[in-house]
Write a structure and sequence with these properties.
Length: 506
């Protein structure tokens, strides 16, 4: 083991020495050819600068760099006689070209070969003047992105029908222009060791607690991974408890949800290449809330929200209660209903746990299949498949008709959760509740519930209790928990966020 560790350390030291020696070398065409010249999409355009004998090269990636910008503005400016270069020292040429020749806005000088290669692979063009140690990085990125559309993963009943895209610049501009928030700050980061991606932490400076921002930034800086292809990686690497089934950051495609969170003193994380933004910290109640709760009048918003809480309870415990009552406590069922259930189960050869597991697993498989199939086929297959399997299972005597009703009610209840990833823990924990019910009946269901509550009570998201404001108890903040009081009453921001400005209306 020690020999392997020493071997690994030697390899790492050699890699560091190689990188250090590479950075010490002067940047020239040969070095760039050695690094990226073997790629067929890398373009090396050699020319003479300003009608002189000073040789230069422009290096860029075909397809990532804006070729029209290069052909129309950059190359003509560099090749025409723009000044008497005899009066300019060659060492000062990069600064002179940056300040007097190039008309594009994004230009900076660079001497690190690693940074130069990274910028070329990101879509920038590099102007290299032969014989000089520094180069100019030209902002010519032109990535192909889709247009701003309605969010796909979150249904919009009422509200703005715009969603985030894969372009980080588009997403930050959406937040900037959505409600023209004053003091909205964007802190840039780069994540990924080998494949670097831009990341932005957004917060409102006059509202958000500075300690929260610093904690988020500290965790992002600790991310040490080769590649971060999606914000789900960031979520898993910065969350408090990776063993918990509950999400400790909220992912969303909806800008209005992000803006509402920012105005409460929360922090948003946006990553290049994904339309899903992250919100931190979060609570359990946030997972059951939707922006439409606030767009409708408070009575309708409260009614719908209470329905969601009831639906989550049904989605989590209905199959377990069925197993407990059938197997352990049939005396608690009304007599006529008990007789009806017994008559329908007379031909079923399996115990209640087995038939419930069979039907629940079948429904989960159908749900996943419908999600992965093409859109025109998926919903139809899920509905037809569920009907056929349920009817066939009843006709074959594998399951009882009452269980089909129970499983259907469970599946429909789980669909009321506004976000897909928030419903996954309920679907997983349902099987744990069923096993506990099969072992100890109602006592098992109660013990499972107590265990679940004890876990959620201890869970935190960036220092904020997951069950807040229920635990710790803050009655003043229950105006926006299970009920949604009128907007004119909710004048205070959540105390759990410790905002700089606690009043919504000044």
């Amino acid at each position: 083991m020690k020999a392997q560790q020493q071997k690994g350390q030697k390899t790492e030291n050699k890699e560091q020495q190689r990188e250090a020696s590479k950075n010490k070398r002067k940047i020239d065409v040969d070095l760039l050819q050695e690094e990226i010249g073997h790629n067929s999409d890398v373009q090396f355009r050699d020319f003479f600068l300003g009608c002189t004998n000073i040789k230069a090269s422009l290096i860029y990636i075909i397809g990532l760099a804006d070729k029209d910008l290069i052909d129309r503005h950059i190359m003509p400016s560099l090749m025409k006689r723009f000044f008497d270069l005899d009066e300019v020292e060659k060492v000062a040429l990069p600064s002179f070209i940056k300040d007097n020749v190039l008309s594009i806005s994004d230009v900076k000088e660079e001497t690190s070969i690693n940074e130069v290669v990274s910028k070329i692979l990101s879509g920038s063009a590099v102007l290299l003047i032969h014989g000089l140690p520094s180069v100019l990085i030209l902002g010519t990125e032109k990535l192909k992105t889709r247009t701003i559309e309605e969010p796909i993963s979150e249904a919009v009943v009422r509200g703005p029908r715009i969603g985030f895209t894969e372009s980080l610049d588009d997403n930050t501009s959406i937040l900037r222009g959505y409600e023209h928030i004053e003091k909205l700050s964007f802190v840039p980061f780069q994540v990924g060791k080998r494949a670097k991606r831009n990341l932005v932490v957004a917060y409102v400076e006059e509202i958000t607690n500075r300690e929260l921002v610093e904690e988020v930034e500290k965790r992002i800086k600790k991310i040490d991974i080769d590649n971060v292809p999606e914000s789900g990686y960031v979520e898993q690497l910065i969350e408090d408890n990776y063993l918990s089934p509950f999400p400790q950051l909220q992912s969303t495609e909806r800008p209005d949800r992000v803006v509402a969170a920012l105005m409460e003193g929360r922090v948003a994380i946006l990553l290049e290449g994904t339309p899903f933004a992250l919100i931190a910290p979060v609570t359990f109640s946030m997972m059951l809330q939707s922006p439409e709760d606030y767009y409708e009048r408070w009575i309708a918003g409260t009614f719908i929200r209470l329905l969601r809480y009831c639906a989550v309870f049904l989605a989590l415990f209905t199959p377990a209660l069925y197993i407990a009552f059938i197997s352990f406590h049939p005396g608690l069922i009304p007599t006529k209903l008990a007789v009806s259930i017994i008559s329908t189960r007379s031909g079923v050869p399996f115990p209640s746990l087995i038939e419930a597991l069979f039907l629940e697993i079948a429904i989960e498989i159908l749900r996943e299949a419908g999600l992965r199939l093409p859109k025109p086929i998926g919903p139809a297959m899920g509905i037809v498949g569920g009907l056929i399997i349920g009817e066939a299972a009843v006709q074959a005597g594998i399951v009882s008709p009452i269980l089909v009703i129970v499983v259907a009610l469970t599946a429909i209840s789980s669909f009321t959760i506004p976000q897909y990833n928030a419903g996954i823990p309920v679907r997983i924990l349902r099987f744990g509740a069923m096993l506990c019910a099969a072992i100890l009946g109602l006592y098992g269901v109660i013990l499972f519930f107590l265990f679940l509550i004890s876990h959620v009570v201890k869970l935190k998201s960036f220092g904020v209790p997951y069950l807040s404001p229920a635990v710790p108890y803050r009655l003043s903040e229950w105006k926006d928990l299970m009920i949604r009081m009128p907007l004119m009453i909710m004048k205070k921001r959540p105390k759990m966020m410790n905002p700089k400005d606690s009043t919504r209306e000044n």
